[in-house]
Structure formats: structure tokens, C-alpha cells
Automatic annotation (TrEMBL):
UniProt key word Calcium: no
Family: Belongs to the major facilitator superfamily. Proton-dependent oligopeptide transporter (POT/PTR) (TC 2.A.17) family.
Spans through the membrane: 41-66, 103-123, 191-210, 216-236, 318-341, 353-373, 394-412, 432-455, 476-495, 515-532
Protein name as it appears in the record: Protein nrt1/ ptr family 2.7
SUPFAM superfamilies linked to this entry: MFS general substrate transporter (SSF103473)
Top-level taxon in the UniProt lineage: Eukaryota
One cellular component (GO) term of this entry: membrane
One GO process term, biological-process aspect: oligopeptide transport
Organism of this sequence: Quercus suber
Alphabetic keyword roster: Membrane, Transmembrane, Transmembrane helix
Length: 553
């Protein structure tokens, strides 16, 4: 014991003797880095990469059906798996950034991977031999893609998904790390979501229009140019960025705590401050790192490491309530595209809205709701309640609104099916139901409004409550739950189809309305589960409620 204390004392002395000059130099360097000068570089990069991601992902179902002769329900399953990958890969990127490389190298590398993916999309769209021969939609004689064609397609999707995943949330952490004040971080998150959704809005409208009405090759070519500009812009801003060096994998220390807790489970717990190991840094011995009473562990690891694991255990139940939201959004967004393909999409006699563009209304609703929440709802709430709207309250409101969105979707689909049956369109997938596709804007807008509450609130909660060593991972937690939900949605779609027959390839012969009613009922149950988890949850960083909640306070 004396040897350990002597060793710790010597190490602290060495630390004290060798670090002041280094700390002064580091502080001098950091004073010249970070701040609002980095904002145009980071936000511009995010805007360009988001436009690229929306450009190839938003119209993917239509691309698979019209260019690869893929059956409609199969196309939705592929779409949901790809979307799940788009949400899962950001978690891997965040872990790599937190643990090994830092944010800048990860974003730069995966932006280049994204560029390769968009180039591959352009090649598949321009070289006919990489696609099966053209065929009328709904025909039973269409030639399916060859193994080589599928292989090239899947490689293209993999590169594009990796590129999106390694940049989207890692760049959010890099951007927030350029600021010291919580208010500045909150403002950055506000602009982060605005740039993300605004870029997607352009993709879902302009880029999709080019793909549907000019050529797929030109549409993907626009994405290549945007991707290249974003990569160059990001690299040009390197000298201004404040780059935080990773301290090794935080998951190693979490695993160490779990092992220690298991091995020492029979040892009597201690309560004295002198019995805890705080590490060598002054920060690790601050009052913020005093051991809490919940989930008591034991020695062997620092108190900070133990408390980090406790934080994760406390927040996992709340986080899990968002998994169903990912499932429902995955099913909803893919089915809406199929509905739009069967409905009248004309605006006037000459303009026809592309089916993939209808998800734009969901994005616009989210943008508008974020602005309303930021500029009207939050200030009004503060004036009336004398306190800010907490992240949990925002998440709960989002759950409720989404339930109403699925109810609206079910009612509109019931009306569409009634019109189809009245005009005897059953078994005729190539014919259009004489009902305006603009009716789909109603549920898309409601769900978008719910997302404006739910997702910024979730990001704010995780960024606020997660340990400092897991900041990149915290911003990617929403992406992880969406990934799980989107990966599960094809399985649930298959299960529903096999057990009920509600989802045939020709949805005019199915009961998509019953699928929406099912989502609404499960949403109510999930909201009850959320209320239980929220009741049991206790904020650890109460003072930060006005901080980075995804909106400027």
C-alpha cells in the first residue's frame, strides 16, 4: 500500500513538474482555435454532405423499382436496411472519434468514402450493363438483376452509407467542441439541425426532380460535385479547428468497472471519501465526481469510471423508448412512397410531383416546428412557467404527436383504398387512384412536427447527461436507436405480411391502413413505457438544462 501511495505521489510530482509549460502552450494554441470562425467551414460541410445523402437516399425506392426492376415491398425492405445502416454507422464513427483518431480525421476520411459512393451511383446510372433491361412498373415479365449487378449496387450502397455514417454526427460533436459556453453550443446545435433539414429539403425537391425528369446520371452527378466541394471546404478549415485528442477507448474503462463490480460483489461497501480512488487529475477529484448512492460498485477503478457506467445504466431505459419510433418512421416513410406512386401527383396540367419528393413535406414540417419551438414556444414557456422546457418534456410531446400522425395516415389510407375499390382498381398496379397525393402531406406534416420535438430533445438529453469521454457517442445515440428501429422494420413488415396479408406488392389489394392503426396502438403502449422511464429518471446535470438542447435558448 505504501509503495502504491509512493508511486502515486511520485507520479503527481512528475505531472506537476512537467506539465505547466505544456499546458500554457496548449492554452495559447487553443485560444487561436475554435470559436465562430469555424462555423462556416463546419456548417457548409454539413450542408453539402447532407444534400448528397438526401440526393441518393430519398429516391432510392423509386430507383430500385424503375431501374433495377425490384418488387415494391422488396424495395422498401432494402431501403429500410440501408437507412438502418445510415443510422448505425454514425455510432461506429463516433466511437472511433472518441477513442482513437479524434473527430477531424474521421470526418475527412469518411467524406472521401462518401465521394466514392456518389461516383459509383453515377456510374450505375450511366452504364446500362450495370442494370437489367428496362421494364414497365408492375409487369410480371421484368428481368431481375444479375449477381454482378446486385454486387455493384450493394457495394455502392455500402460506400455511400459508410460515408454518411462517418460524418453526420461526428461533425456535430466537432462543431460543438469549438465552443466553451453552453449557449454557443446550443446555438450551434440549432443551426446544425437547420442546415441538415434544409439540405435534405433541397435534395428531396431539386435533386429528385432532376433524377425523375432529366436523368438519374445527372442527379447523382450533382451529388458528386456537392460532395467534392464539401470535402475541400472541410479540409480548408483545418487550421481553425480546435481538435481534442482522444484519451483511448472509454468502453475499456466501462468494461473494467463491470468486471470489478462482479469480482467484488461480496465485499462490504465503503462510504468514506478516503476509500475511493479518484485518479491523478484534479478534475477527477472535483465535487462533481463524488460517488452517488445508486448502483454502488467498489474500488479498482476510478470514481469517474464508475459514475460513467452508472450514467449509461440510468439513461438506457429512456433511450430504448425511441426504438419503436425508429421502427414506425422506417415503415411509415417507405409505405408513403408506395402510396404516392399509386395516387394522382399532378400539380396543374403539366407538373407532376416525384413520389420520392413527398418525404420533403416531412422535412419541411420538422424545420418549421424547430423554428417555432425555438422562437415562440420556448420563450413563451419560460415566461409562463418561469423555467425552461426540459429535454424529457420535449421527447414526451414528440411521442404524442407521432401517435396522432399515424392515426391520420390510417384514415387517409382508408379513404384511398375506398376510392381504389370504387373504381375497380384491384389487381391493377399500373393504374393511378383518382385521389390527390397531397392528402399524404397531412400525416407527413404531423410526424415531422413530432420529430421537431423528439429528436432535438433526445440529442440535448444525451449530450447533457453522457460522460465527457463519450460526447461524440452521445450525439450518435439517436442515430443508434433509429438504426435498430430501421433494421427491425423490414422484419416486422415481413412478419405482418405473412401473418395478415396486409402488404402485398400491389398495395391496392392490401390493408396498409391497418398497418398504420397497428403503429398508432403500439405507439400508445410505448408512450406509457416512456412515462414510467421518465418518472424514474433523475437529471445529473440540472444546471445544464439551458445548454445544448438542440435549440438556442
Amino acid at each position: 500500500m505504501e509503495r502504491v501511495e509512493s508511486s502515486q505521489h511520485s507520479e503527481r510530482e512528475l505531472y506537476a513538474l512537467t506539465t505547466p509549460n505544456e499546458e500554457a502552450e496548449q492554452a495559447s494554441n487553443e485560444s487561436k482555435q475554435g470559436g465562430w470562425i469555424t462555423f462556416p467551414f463546419i456548417t457548409g460541410t454539413l450542408f453539402g454532405l447532407s444534400l448528397v445523402a438526401g440526393g441518393w437516399a430519398s429516391n432510392l425506392i423509386v430507383y430500385l423499382i424503375t431501374e433495377y426492376n425490384v418488387k415494391s415491398i422488396t424495395a422498401t425492405k432494402i431501403f429500410n436496411v440501408v437507412q438502418g445502416s445510415n443510422c448505425l454507422f454514425p455510432v461506429a464513427g463516433a466511437i472511433i472519434a472518441d477513442s482513437f483518431l479524434g473527430s477531424f480525421p474521421v470526418v475527412a476520411f469518411f467524406a472521401f468514402v462518401s465521394l466514392l459512393g456518389t461516383i459509383m451511383f453515377t456510374i450505375t446510372a450511366t452504364i446500362q450493363s450495370l442494370r437489367p433491361p428496362g421494364c414497365a412498373v408492375g409487369s410480371h415479365t421484368c428481368e431481375t438483376p444479375s449477381n454482378l449487378q446486385y454486387g455493384v449496387l450493394y457495394m455502392t450502397l455500402l460506400l455511400a452509407s459508410l460515408g454518411l455514417g462517418g460524418t453526420r454526427f461526428t461533425i456535430a460533436t466537432l462543431g460543438a467542441g469549438q465552443f466553451d459556453k453552453p449557449n454557443d453550443q446550443a446555438t450551434f446545435f440549432n443551426w446544425y439541425f437547420f442546415a441538415l433539414y434544409f439540405a435534405n429539403a433541397i435534395s428531396f425537391s431539386a435533386v429528385v426532380y432532376i433524377q425523375d425528369n432529366v436523368s438519374w446520371g445527372l442527379g447523382f452527378g450533382v451529388c458528386v460535385i456537392a460532395n467534392a466541394i464539401s470535402l475541400v471546404l472541410f479540409v480548408l478549415g483545418k487550421r481553425f479547428y480546435r481538435q481534442v485528442k482522444p484519451n483511448g477507448s472509454p468502453f475499456t474503462s466501462i468494461a473494467r468497472v463491470m468486471v470489478a463490480a462482479i469480482r467484488k460483489r461480496k465485499i462490504l461497501k465503503t462510504v468514506g471519501r478516503q476509500d475511493y480512488y479518484f485518479g491523478f487529475t484534479e478534475a477527477s477529484k472535483s465535487e462533481d465526481n463524488l460517488p452517488t448512492k445508486s448502483f454502488r460498485s467498489w474500488k479498482l477503478c476510478t470514481v469517474e469510471e464508475v459514475e460513467d457506467l452508472k450514467t449509461l445504466i440510468r439513461i438506457i431505459p429512456l433511450w430504448s423508448t425511441g426504438i419503436f419510433l425508429g421502427i414506425s418512421i422506417g415503415i411509415f416513410s417507405s409505405l408513403v412512397t408506395l402510396q404516392a406512386l399509386t395516387m394522382d401527383r399532378h400539380l396543374g396540367p403539366h407538373f407532376k410531383i416525384p413520389a420520392g419528393t413527398f418525404l420533403l413535406f416531412n422535412i419541411l414540417a420538422t424545420i418549421i416546428s424547430i423554428l417555432i419551438i425555438d422562437r415562440f414556444l420556448l420563450p413563451t414557456w419560460r415566461n409562463l412557467a418561469r423555467r425552461t422546457l426540459t429535454p424529457l418534456q420535449r421527447i414526451g410531446i414528440g411521442h404524442i404527436i407521432n401517435i396522432f400522425g399515424f392515426v391520420g395516415a390510417a384514415l387517409i389510407e382508408s379513404k384511398r383504398l375506398h376510392v381504389a375499390r370504387t373504381h375497380h382498381l384491384m389487381g391493377q398496379p399500373s393504374l393511378v387512384v383518382s385521389m390527390s397525393a397531397l392528402w399524404l402531406v397531412v400525416p407527413l406534416g404531423i410526424v415531422g412536427l413530432g420529430e421537431g420535438f423528439h429528436f432535438p430533445g433526445s440529442v440535448g438529453l444525451y449530450y447533457q447527461e453522457f460522460p465527457k469521454s463519450l460526447k461524440s457517442t452521445s450525439t450518435a445515440m439517436v442515430s443508434l436507436l433509429l438504426a435498430i428501429g430501421l433494421y427491425l422494420s423490414p422484419a416486422i413488415t415481413t412478419l405482418v405480411d405473412r401473418t395478415t396479408g396486409w402488404l402485398p406488392n400491389n398495395i391496392n389489394d392490401g390493408r396498409v391502413d391497418n398497418v398504420y392503426w397497428m403503429l398508432a396502438v403500439i405507439g400508445v403502449v410505448n408512450f406509457g413505457y416512456f412515462l414510467i422511464c421518465a418518472k424514474m429518471f433523475k437529471y445529473q446535470n440540472v444546471e445544464d438544462h439551458n445548454g445544448p438542447s438542440g435549440l438556442a435558448p
